[in-house]
Amino acid sequence: MQNSIAIWRKTLELSQAKVAKLAAVTWQTINAIENDKYNPSLSLAFKLA
After folding, report:
1. C-alpha triplet 5, 45, 3: angle, nearest 5°
2. Which residues form the HTH cro/C1-type domain (predicted)?
3. What does pLDDT average to over the chain?
């Protein structure tokens, strides 16, 4: 499954920091997810969806 977090984030004109704040994680976590260095937990994946 392809990671499309960055595509949707840019489409919605949101920064990594804003997405992180909404999901209650750090911007580093969002960056790692976007760069396929970290797989989010199921609960975080639902928050991002």
Report:
1. 30
2. 5-49
3. 93
